[in-house]
UniProtKB/TrEMBL annotation:
InterPro entries: Man6P_isomerase_rcpt-bd_dom_sf, MRH_dom, OS-9-like, OS9-like_dom. Residues 154-311 form the MRH domain. It is found in: Endoplasmic reticulum. It comes from Octactis speculum. GO terms for biological process: endoplasmic reticulum unfolded protein response; retrograde protein transport, ER to cytosol. This is MRH domain-containing protein. It comes from the Eukaryota. Keywords: Disulfide bond, Endoplasmic reticulum, Signal. GO terms for cellular component: endoplasmic reticulum lumen.
Length: 329
């Protein structure tokens, strides 16, 4: 920092304070943006970066005009009540100059767990939503001052059950009956939580009426959930929670949940059942990220899910900060 600077400057320095759990959950939203189209105007929110308003010229494929509704400034925590879980309010200031007020436009963004009604939108084709956060609404309660609601599962269940400490297995219960798929060239893969992981090849067939459909031609079970895992409860969390390891072999500072799926289709090369190690991590969507055959007829599978982002052990922590000011003496 230049000691001769005329300008007062704020800098972030690492601290030792414990980070608030809700702040930790919010880290999973880094890099997330979403848009909402309401007639002539469209709006875009990017987590702790900016809020903007623009018109989409469909004929030209351009945005004109584009107005800033504020750049990120600071946040406050809104504690839970009986009616709702915790929420976080982000403030955005210094946007496009407002002629009516003589100041820059500003926005207050309320990030919270929303009801099903708040998730509904009038026209799906006019709206693009990310899996981890959605732009639910915007209003202008005062001249050039905006209030935005962002729905995020990160805050659903953050405070529930009369103060119960939810475990990772509790949060994963939301995946019961859910399956994820991934296509890689010839093969497709399907993961169903607490059920199975399989590999198959799809072919397209045309019936006598010219209607096309996809059917499975070849299929292999790459493992089934073990009985003990199917019947596991929150008390068993430590059995499955392990540190996430980076490519260089170091720990990344977050946890993963690991399950062994066994008793798959017999392998022709080993004459033993196929099996898979399922590694589940916090991510921006529910998906199979990768499938690698780490040794003959055994597979290492990485699954991303927003469910684990509700547990602070699975979200990468950012250093706590404090501000200092420097002035020319």
């Amino acid at each position: 920092m230049d000691p001769n600077s005329d300008t007062e400057t704020s800098a972030a320095l690492g601290g030792n304070a414990t980070q608030d759990p809700v702040d930790t959950l919010m880290n999973a939203l880094v890099g997330q943006c979403d848009t909402l189209r309401t007639g002539w105007w469209s709006y875009e929110w990017c987590h702790r970066k900016y809020v903007r308003q623009f018109h989409i010229d469909d004929a030209q494929g351009t945005l004109d005009p584009v107005w800033s509704l504020g750049q990120y400034n600071h946040s406050t925590r809104v504690n839970a009540t009986i009616e709702r879980s915790d929420s976080m309010v982000d403030y955005f200031v210094g946007g496009q100059h407002c002629h009516e007020t003589g100041e820059g436009r500003q926005s207050k963004v309320d990030l919270r767990c929303c009801t099903e009604a708040e998730h509904k939108v009038k026209s799906k084709k006019d709206r693009k939503s990310s899996a981890i956060a959605s732009f639910a609404s915007i209003r202008e309660p005062g001249l050039c001052s905006y209030e935005v609601t962002i729905c995020t599962p990160m805050l659903c269940g953050a405070v529930q059950g009369g103060g119960k400490n939810h475990t990772a297995l509790d949060f994963l219960e939301a995946l019961q009956g859910t399956c994820f798929s991934r296509h890689e060239g010839w093969w497709s893969y399907e993961f169903c939580y607490k059920r199975h992981f399989r590999q198959f090849h799809l072919v397209t067939v045309i019936d006598a009426k010219g209607k096309t459909s996809s059917v499975i031609q070849d299929e292999y079970s790459l493992g089934k959930a073990q009985e003990a895992d199917i019947n596991s409860s929150g008390a068993d969390e430590a059995k499955y929670m392990v540190p996430k390891i980076s490519a260089d072999g170091s720990e990344e500072g977050v946890s993963t949940m690991e399950f062994e799926y066994t008793d798959g289709t017999t392998c022709e090369l080993t004459q033993a059942p196929r099996g898979s190690s399922i590694q589940m991590i916090c991510g921006a969507g529910d998906a199979i990220l990768s499938v690698v055959e780490d040794y003959t007829c055994h597979y290492k599978v990485i699954i991303s899910t927003t469910a684990l982002c509700k547990h602070e052990a699975f979200v990468k922590k950012t250093p706590s900060t404090k501000s200092v000011s420097c002035r020319r003496s």
